[in-house]
Recover the amino acids of this structure.
């Protein structure tokens, strides 16, 4: 992590575990807060932004950091669990400095910031001392991508706002994050940076992240994409999530995007939009695991094992007559994952179908769906129409999304018994 005993490149801090004085992990580093200063003086490092286990982001002052060694951060004193709020005078290193184009003061050459290093100047006091930059190709003697580390005073341009900043190095820093965690990162960026990161993500990754974002952020991001790409992203999303997003858009905008989608991708989304939002039809996904009764246990387990299957949907296989795409042929019943594990691989799943659970009609209200899942200890439930066609499956995560408050992604329970404000050492 450190290039010297008192120097830390900040991208290496991303995701580092944060431990309290008792040795308990309280969260992970998500960014570093600095204060820019006039006269070319190196920015002062104010503290770290840490994400605790409840996904709340808190501020950890550098005065409370005792060690930045071996990929972990050690703290002293009581940690303040108040939510971090960025002030106008503060700059986030990972969120706002990486990928920025700055100018080498000596030559006037524009370079791109790949990383920033902070250096300890005295006990628990740090400032940004070095900038790791990349040159553009210029002339035959310089290789593309040549990099160099310079003093902070050797570059200018950090205090200026910049259009088209790019996001490659920011994304590289958070490459290993789960979609939900990357969504949390995006949520805390400025609208400008959110748009730049969204533009840099590939379609599948952006689709996964959008599914985890609050609705306001989803609408903001999709609204800044070109229509053709927005349609591609909607195709990559789960149909129920795509339908939820489109339902938040003005009707004309939603219809325009639906027309740009491939017909076979748009059809299930249109079908979902025809149901009430808080009904089984409105909540369901149209892509459960469906097999015919003459499929074997081995066939079923192969489908369950597929990496793209979500856990809730992989808990059950729905047995139907052909066709296997929803709406299917006649719905016959469910085979639970645990039953598949207990049977020989050559067993036909038609012989082990659970026919005792009545499926849900598409107009089933949310309260009934919740009671159904709780009563039978299920994580998903089949949705079947009057003609016994399987339409989809309602999963517990979709139910929770509608049961929790609208701001549940930001509303968190405090970690342990630590108070939310007024504790020593953490106030800002």
């Amino acid at each position: 992590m450190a290039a010297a005993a008192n120097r830390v490149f900040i991208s290496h801090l991303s995701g580092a575990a944060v431990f309290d004085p008792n040795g308990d992990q309280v969260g992970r580093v998500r960014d570093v807060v600095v204060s820019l200063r006039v006269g070319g003086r190196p920015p002062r490092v104010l503290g770290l932004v840490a994400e605790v286990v409840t996904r709340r982001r808190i501020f950890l002052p550098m005065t409370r950091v005792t060690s930045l060694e071996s990929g972990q951060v050690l703290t002293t004193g009581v940690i303040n669990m108040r939510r971090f709020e960025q002030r106008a005078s503060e700059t986030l290193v990972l969120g706002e400095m990486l990928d920025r184009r700055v100018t080498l003061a000596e030559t006037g050459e524009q370079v791109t910031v790949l990383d920033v290093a902070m250096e300890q100047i005295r006990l628990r006091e740090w400032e940004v001392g070095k900038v790791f930059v990349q040159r553009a190709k210029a002339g035959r003697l310089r290789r593309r991508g040549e990099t160099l580390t310079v003093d902070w005073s050797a570059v200018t341009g950090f205090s200026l706002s910049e259009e088209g900043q790019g996001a490659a190095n920011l994304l590289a820093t958070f490459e290993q994050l789960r979609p939900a965690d990357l969504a949390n990162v995006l949520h805390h960026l400025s609208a400008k940076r959110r748009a730049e990161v969204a533009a840099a993500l590939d379609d599948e990754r952006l689709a996964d992240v959008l599914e985890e974002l609050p609705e306001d952020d989803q609408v903001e991001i999709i609204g800044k994409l070109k229509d053709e790409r927005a349609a591609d992203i909607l195709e990559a999303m789960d149909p129920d999530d795509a339908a939820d997003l489109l339902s938040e858009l003005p009707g004309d905008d939603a219809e325009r995007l639906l027309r740009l989608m491939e017909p076979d991708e748009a059809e299930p989304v249109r079908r979902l939009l025809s149901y009430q939002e808080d009904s089984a039809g409105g909540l369901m996904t149209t892509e459960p695991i469906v097999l015919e009764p003459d499929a074997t246990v081995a066939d079923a387990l192969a489908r369950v094992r597929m990496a793209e299957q979500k856990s809730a949907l992989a808990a059950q296989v729905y047995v139907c007559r052909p066709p296997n795409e929803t709406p299917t042929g006649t719905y016959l019943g469910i085979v639970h994952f645990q039953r598949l594990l207990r049977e020989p691989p050559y067993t036909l799943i038609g012989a082990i179908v659970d026919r005792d659970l009545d499926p849900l009609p598409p107009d089933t209200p949310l309260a009934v769906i919740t009671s159904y899942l709780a009563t039978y200890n299920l994580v998903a439930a089949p949705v079947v129409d009057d003609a016994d066609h399987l339409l989809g499956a309602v999963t517990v995560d979709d139910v929770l999304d509608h049961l929790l408050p609208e701001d549940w992604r930001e509303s968190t329970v405090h970690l342990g018994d630590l108070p939310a404000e007024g504790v020593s050492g953490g106030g800002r």
